[in-house]
Specification:
The chain is an alpha/beta fold and 354 residues long. Helix content is 26%, strand content 26%. The protein has helices spanning 42-48, 98-101, 150-153, 159-169, 185-196, 211-217, 228-232, 252-255, 279-283, 297-310, 324-332, 345-353, and strands at residues 2-8, 17-23, 30-40, 65-72, 84-87, 90-92, 113-114, 133-137, 142-143, 177-181, 200-205, 221-224, 238-243, 258-266, 288-291, 316-320, 339-343. Strands 3, 4, 5, 8, 9, 16 and 17 form a seven-stranded mixed β-sheet that branches. Strands 12-11-10-13-14-15 form a six-stranded parallel β-sheet, with helices on one face. The chain is globular. The two termini are 23 Å apart. The structure holds NADP nicotinamide-adenine-dinucleotide phosphate and zinc ion.
């Protein structure tokens, strides 16, 4: 066991504060990573504040982890000390159910183990990436190509794969008109990735101020969704919509923009249900409403390679670990362009100074 520095929530209402935990010594299959940067996902905030009512405390969020390998177990073959490495939302799964066999570990029928907040179906808590180090099974560690912008790669480990996977699954590409709802951490990655896949991208935002950014990030059109006249221009036009919004809202406003046989996939995970869509918006045009959860390990590596090939990284604002609580407040207000990333050197420096 080694001691690790973290920032943790001790309950749903207090600020995150410094907290020491034990990490296991690397076993034969394990990779030990010195965390250099960790992205801040809205799921971290939902979890720290128990908004999904399943949080195990103390809670150490963070599942957009990049760093350097500091030790490997005797059976590890794909990593060596000094390599760059990434860890996303999962650190284990059963490895024998049908979903695991197909490389879709996020749908593990026995429940994957989250990087934080423990196994989905119960078990010992796990502690995430708001920390100076982590020990993870090799199978769940991703290769990161050498880069001079490591901090901007971190958000790919969740925001990147959560948007790449459904865009890939629903075969977004040239000739397809794709809507992205919400320009936050997930949404801005969706715009970049769908654009690189060759689709015509329409961004839907509630923020007039994000119009220019939407175009710069790769959208062909930007629609301010509060404006009914602008929304009407897209009626029955879209093949696919990826909805990343973190709060309950009227889904009908977007379902009615799909062509016949179109699909809207929800990846946003609000703490309260959306008002149900009207059945008529679905049956008259054989439309589908779907959901999607992160992505498997093989597909995550595919996404990292796709982003490296297309020069895609996240637009980030680097913060110090101690500023995480203010970052959460800004995230709730939609005031982030477009992902906060924690520089983990600031956690070590803070501990040294104490
Ligand atoms: P984020 O950075 O906070 O972005 C959410 C965006 O939604 C906002 O920037 C905003 O964009 C839009 N929005 C519109 N109305 C909103 C409202 N009332 N409240 C909040 N946002 C509103 O969050 P994120 O990190 O991208 O995560 C988005 C959601 O996806 C969260 O619920 C998160 O838990 C979930 N998630 C799901 C998965 C999965 O596997 N399915 C994985 C990761 C995260 P505009 O200003 O452009 O309107
Ligand atoms: Zn996430």
């Amino acid at each position: 066991m080694t001691q690790a520095l973290t920032y943790a929530a001790q309950n749903a209402s207090d600020r995150l504060k410094p907290f020491k935990i034990e990490r296991r010594a690397p076993g034969a299959d394990d990779v030990q990573i010195d965390i250099l940067f960790c992205g801040v996902c809205h799921s971290d905030l939902h979890t720290a504040r128990n908004e999904w009512q399943n949080t195990l405390y103390p809670s150490v969020p963070g599942h957009e982890i990049v760093g350097k390998v500091t030790a490997v177990g005797s059976a590890v073959t794909r990593f060596k000390v000094g390599d760059l490495a990434g860890v996303g939302c999962m650190v284990d799964s059963c490895q024998h159910c049908a979903s695991c066999a197909e490389g879709e570990e996020q749908y593990c029928e026995n429940g994957f183990t989250g990087t934080y907040n423990g196994p989905v179906f119960g078990g010992e808590n796990t502690y995430g990436g708001y920390s100076d180090s982590v020990v993870v099974k090799e199978k769940f560690v991703l290769h990161i190509a050498p880069t001079d912008n490591l901090a901007a790669i971190a958000p790919l480990l969740c925001a990147g794969i959560t948007t790449f996977s459904p865009l890939n699954h629903w075969k977004v590409g040239p000739g397809k008109k794709v809507g992205v709802v919400g320009l936050g951490g997930l949404g801005h990655m969706a715009v970049k990735i769908a654009h690189a896949m060759g689709a015509h991208v329409v961004l839907f935002t509630t923020s007039e101020s994000k119009r220019e950014d939407g175009l710069r990030l790769g959208a062909d059109e930007v629609v301010v969704s509060r404006n009914p006249d602008e929304m009407a221009t897209q009626a029955n036009r879209l093949d696919f919509i990826l909805n990343t919004v973190a709060a309950p809202h009227d889904l009908d406003a977007f379902l009615s923009l799909l062509k016949r046989d179109g699909t809207m996939t929800l990846v946003g995970a609000p703490d309260h249900p959306h008002p149900s869509p009207t059945v008529f918006n679905l049956i008259f045009k054989r439309r589908s409403l779907a959901g999607s959860l992160i992505g498997g390990i093989r597909e995550t590596q595919e996404m990292l390679d796709f982003c490296a090939k297309h020069g895609i990284v996240s637009d980030i604002e680097v913060i110090a670990m101690k500023d995480i609580n203010e970052a959460y407040e800004r995230m709730v207000k939609g005031d982030v362009k477009y992902r906060f990333v924690i520089d983990m050197a600031t956690l070590k420096a803070e501990a040294d100074a104490a």
